[in-house]
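Checklist before submission:
- one chain only
- standard amino acids only
- sequence pasted in full

Submission:
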Amino acid sequence: MPGGRGRIGVILPANNAGMEYDLWKMAPEGVSIHSTRMKPTRGCEPENLEEFEKELKYSYSLLAEVSDTIIYGRTYGTHKHAHVIKRVIKDVVIPEESVYELLKKLNVRKLWIGTPYIKERTLEEVEWWRNKGFEIVGYDGLGKIRGIDISNTPIFTIYRLVKRHLDEVLKADAVYIACTALSTYEAVQYLHEDLDMPVVSENVAAMWEALNKLKIKAKLPGF
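Returned file contents:
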């Protein structure tokens, strides 16, 4: 039976073409991925909470019957309005929160951050993690805005984004690569092998938490 060990539902923005690839690459035998989409948006937080909740409820209704756990695979609405998402979807996996839990489990205090974003959005990410109590030893971004452009990023563009800041990176306990639209499966593998340190992306952390909820053990890339 497809998904006999577990079925993971994923809610994505329409222009995210990266996360499903990563999740399928990481899924252990017997675990299947089932996704649906929401409208793409600008910025991180919804302007109309009522409409956001309505659309989220509809997307959730499309997945609920075929999912044992659900990943909310976008940043939109998670920084200030995670309570809305958690009200609609019980026991939901929110990737940034999964990253936080994984970094705590790995005893990480010093973090180097890589993003696909423009400078302003990258700085927002840096500030968010500082407020979570991490020392940020360095950061850089790729200057991208559109989701599909982020998803089209080559593996070694991500790899070299990190490696060109090697002096800073080696001062960190771990590397964090942001954004669910950025396909990171191969990049975190290579970076972990070459740097001999944890390299955590949102997609890897989301799969880690989803599998934990399903009580399924698997080896994941990056740590």
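Reviewer check: The longest strand covers residues 135-144.
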